[in-house]
Amino acid sequence: MQNDVDSDQRSALEFHEDKGFHGEEDHGLFAMEMEKKSPASAQTVATDHDENDTLDGAQSVIASDPSDTPIPSQRGGTETRLLGTGITTREPDRPSNPKEAQIQADERVQQFLLLEDLTSGMNKPCVLDLKMGTRQYGIEADEKKKSNQRRKCMVTTSQQLGVRLCGVQVWDMNKGVRIYKDKYSGRGIKAGREFQDSLKEYLYDGISNKSILRRIPDVIEKLSKLDKIIRGLPGYRFYASSLLLLYDADPPTLTNDTKLDEETLSSNRQRTSGVELKLIDFANCVTAEDELLDSTPCPPHEPEGIDRGYLRGLRTLRMYLLRIYQDTYSEERQAKGPELEDDHATELLEEEVPPTWNDSAFDEDLGYVSI
Q1: Which of 28, 37, 204, 285 has the highest CB neighbour count under 10 A?
Q2: What is the percentage of the chain residues whose pLDDT exceeds 70?
Q3: How confident is the model at residue 283 (pLDDT cuts 50, 70, 90)?
Q4: pLDDT tens digits along 301-326
């Protein structure tokens, strides 16, 4: 039976004196600071440890005066002598920032990821996250990951269209409310009218259809430039990456009295005039410089080719945006008559769009789907 520590009863345990213990003799283990030996009497005996015998070069062991005061090391860094043990540990000097880490020779290098807030400076940011491509797993994916991503592509618009909605935030300026949909909502959207309406909802400010007509030409132009860039990158794959569309539903008013530097002014003008496109999430991407070993689990079908799955998604977006523009322009023309003016109308209205939404629109360039 165990006794309470606060009980007055004596425990059944017995105490035996250790014959090897001779009392608290002064071995210098707990010397007070006033009792430290003078530097003149201190002795340092080098051990026969070779420098290469230390643990990863991070510690050096010497017999020394028992002091815990950090001292500079001849090998660089700071040495701290453990009190009474004769052992000195060395802490290497660390670079204070990533740039210094690249130029300063040291045993430990620290690197950081710098994240940018793409909505910084926006009053009412509207963001559309589009998962691009027909394949959503990397070259090192295991069978479970591969099977899961293939199934996800088959039941969403990724396989058919090469793009799916992965999240959206948009402001209804008429009601003054923010509309938000997550990736799970995007997975339920079907190709055709549902996908078209989702894109249109993102571009609409809740007040006038002119907001749609004003933004689409800018997006189509940037998609065309991106298409050209991707076609010029053989050997590159942008697996599981996203295309981010951003604009400010309530951009700041620029006046001549505003004191801003040229770079900030240029950035603000771009944000007030159109939609920004950003490529994000490159964790599973492949470049032409990457070495693909024979043991690579999931290499690209044609390593030297271009990313046709990504191009399929870009072509889908262009086609849908053209359809939205033409339908919206027709509605506005009927409502307001011939006085509707748009500098881009002639060019975009003359471009042909498939009359119905079906797979035949993609027969020319099927890409590599995740099946």
Answers
A1: 204
A2: 57
A3: very high
A4: 999 999 999 999 999 999 999 999 99
Q: What is the C-alpha to C-alpha distance for residues 197 and 30, in angstroms, rounded to an integer? A: 78
Tokens standing for residue 156: 């969403």
Q: What is the pTM of this model?
A: 0.65
Q: How far apart are CA 180 and CA 166, in angstroms?
A: 11
Q: Measured between alpha carbons, how far is 253 from 268 in angstroms, rounded to an integer?
A: 9
